[in-house]
Design brief:
- By secondary structure, the chain is of the alpha/beta class.
- The protein folds into 2 domains: 183 residues, Quinone Oxidoreductase, Chain A, domain 1, CATH 3.90.180; 134 residues, NAD(P)-binding Rossmann-like Domain (Rossmann fold, 3-Layer(aba) Sandwich), CATH 3.40.50.
- Helix content is 24%, strand content 29%.
- The strands form 5 sheets. Strands 3, 7, 8, 11, 12, 19 and 20 form a 7-stranded mixed β-sheet that branches. It has a 6-stranded parallel β-sheet with strand order 15-14-13-16-17-18, sandwiched between helices.
- Helix 4 crosses helix 5 and helix 4 crosses helix 9.
Length: 344
């Protein structure tokens, strides 16, 4: 028996016994070493659900994980006992029209770690030991730390979003919302050759991390509510906007600051909002959504392994599994935390 972090209801986290069992054919058992607390984990913690999904039974949280392969099942190739791996939380079916059409992130039968969409729920990966398909595992190069590898999932989200924007070389980029996804998106924009990366947030504290990750300018809108107005002149300034806050007011402001013909990639999830459609149409702006990732997960591991992006300055604190309540409390405080991880 091992231990796992279950959520039973809002603000009801419990470290409980878990029996992962032996790996079956095509599966491996991974001893989890590092795991990041994501915004969706916080939604389950505070609200007992995420979006339209509600908890209907206890569920193991977590999907940003890395660990060491301890056992392998029959027929497994490409992964060996002792390999350190980043674990992809997505498992598309490979058979539906979207999988066959090259869009497995839209799979009709997706199994994603720590999701209450299905019943029974799909348990997550905040476990001391996890049995999963070997195909989910990306082997790390020698010497790569598990704490670093646990950033592969959120970085993959950002790489997929960047793909929706098109080439970033020489572009003027605005990122609205300086949570972990917004900050990593700023780093991806710089990696893509953006000439200018402006990051905004209501609060000043998270913008410190945006600067560390490559932002050329940061704006705390609570302190400078009119600072973006300087970018409205001559029909707008930015070629690309990544809206990472899920705020309707942030998206409206982005439309004003974007130049005609710009692309806005909506990353943040929020409630339904009212759009200034006349401005969107008159400026011929392309508004695109972005959802999860697929091939970008392995690409994210490569980016991290090469040191092309170093997210370690984002790590605020690391807690043991039995300190989960404290870890979630800190991760919920945007004035104090950027990325909080659990160590197993």
């Amino acid at each position: 028996m091992t231990r796992a972090l279950f959520i039973h209801a809002a603000h009801d986290l419990r470290v409980e016994a878990d029996n992962p069992g032996p790996p079956g054919p095509g599966q491996v058992l991974v001893r989890i070493g590092a795991a990041g607390i994501c915004g969706s984990d916080l939604h389950y913690f505070h609200a007992g659900g995420f979006g339209a999904m509600r908890l209907r039974q206890p569920m193991v949280l977590g999907h940003e994980v890395a660990g060491t392969v301890a056992e392998i099942g029959a027929g497994v190739t490409g992964v060996a006992i002792g390999d350190k791996v980043a674990v992809n939380p997505s498992l598309p079916c490979g058979m539906c029209k979207f999988c066959l059409g090259g869009a497995p992130n839209h799979c009709l039968d997706m199994r994603f770690f720590g999701s209450a969409m299905r019943m029974p729920h799909v348990h997550g990966a905040f476990r001391e030991a996890l049995v999963c398909e070997a195909a989910r595992c990306v082997v790390l190069p020698p010497g790569m730390h598990l704490t670093l590898a646990a950033f592969a999932e959120p970085l993959a989200v950002c790489l997929h979003a960047a793909a929706q924007a098109g080439p970033l070389l020489g572009r003027r980029v605005l990122v609205t919302g300086a949570g972990p996804i917004g900050v990593l998106t700023a780093a991806v924009a710089r990696l893509g050759g953006a000439a200018e990366v402006v990051v905004t947030d209501l609060m000043a504290a998270p913008l410190v991390f945006a600067t560390r990750m490559g932002a050329t300018r940061t704006i705390a809108l609570h302190d400078e509510p009119d600072a973006l107005a300087g970018y409205h002149a001559d029909k707008g300034h930015f070629d690309v906007v990544f809206e990472a806050s899920g705020s309707g007011s942030a998206l409206a402001g982005a439309i004003e600051a974007a130049r005609p013909g710009a692309t806005i990639v909506q990353m943040g999830l929020g409630d339904d909002i009212t759009l200034p459609l006349s401005r969107l149409v008159a400026k011929e702006i392309t508004l695109r959504g972005t959802f999860r990732f697929h091939a970008e997960f392995a690409a994210a591991v490569d980016v991290l392994a090469r040191g092309a992006i170093n997210p370690m300055p984002m790590v605020t604190a690391v807690f043991r599994l039995d300190q989960a309540e404290e870890a979630f409390a800190l991760a919920s405080d945007r004035a104090k935390a950027m990325k909080v991880q659990l160590a197993f």
